Amino acid sequence: MKVNYAGTVPLSTVDWRGRAAVTIFFRGCPLRCPYCQNHPYLQGLNLVKLEFVQEQIKESKPFVSAVVFSGGEPLMQKAIVPLAEFAREMGLSIGVHTNGYYPETASEMVKRKLVDKFFIDIKAPPDDPELYGKITGFEEYESVKKKPEQVTASIIETLEIADSCDLELELRTTLIRDFIGSKEEIISIAVWISKHMKNEELTYVLQQGIPEHSLQENLRELRVLEREELYELGKIAKRFLKNVRIRTKESGEEIISSSV
Questions:
Q1: What is the pLDDT along the chain (260 residues), one digit of tens a residue?
Q2: 3-class SS letters over the chain
């Protein structure tokens, strides 16, 4: 079996907060989010043998307690299952960063007990397919055969799968000034989560997008949202959700302690 491989971070402390992890990046993604920070991984082939990636995990094993599969979109590749099996055999916890587009693979990993934590991007309110289409760029990407409402249905199904099992769960939204992250949009996302997700211990994170690294060139000149602006948006989300955090370049990860 081959892996469309993007790279490895042998020791990461940021991809799973509180854990030392080896992070495996996969190539390929069905979406084309204009603000994507990892856009070099979105397409192209760099096929390597499964054993090569297993060796990357094995080499990091003495220094880490977890493996994180990221991308790109890791659930896009069938190789994630044997790689997760290999990590489990080595006694590592398994985290998956996903945009939620592949609920079938998410379900398989849950049923086979091959995941301990999902990190799921909620890029816009899931009940607003039109806005989700704008934020993810899938209407511009010819290989996406689904209609906007079918894409959001897949994402909601993945959220339901992650919510139905006893796993750690982090939901996060990346904010870009004048693109996504208005007060009204954050309220809509937080209200949707509060109404549809049963896991009261889930964490919702507002991430500071860095426009200069965006896929879409016309976003690169936008001014980054400052830490104080994200904190105020975090307090708004806190009105509806128990565990809210922000992540910024200036101050790292911060817990929002109050909505007042």
A1: 999 999 999 999 999 999 999 999 999 999 999 999 999 999 899 999 999 999 999 999 999 999 999 999 999 999 999 999 999 999 999 999 999 999 999 999 999 999 999 999 999 999 999 999 899 986 555 555 667 888 899 999 999 999 999 899 999 999 999 999 999 999 999 999 999 999 999 999 999 999 999 999 999 999 999 999 999 999 999 999 999 999 999 999 999 997 66
A2: CEEEEEEEEEEECCCCCCCCEEEEEECCCCCCCCCCCCHHHCCCCCEEEHHHHHHHHHHHHHHCCEEEEECCCHHHCCCHHHHHHHHHHCCCEEEEEECCCCHHHHHHHHHCCCCCEEEEECCCCCCCHHHHHHHHCHHHCCCCCCCHHHHHHHHHHHHHHHHCCCCEEEEEEEEECCCECCHHHHHHHHHHHHHHCCCCCCEEEEEECCHHHCCCHHHCCCCCCCHHHHHHHHHHHHCCCCEEEEEECCCEEEECCCCC
What token pair was written down for 74?
Answer: 């890791």
User: Is the pTM of the predicted complex or chain greater than 0.85?
Assistant: yes
CA separation for the pair 231, 207 (Å, rounded): 10
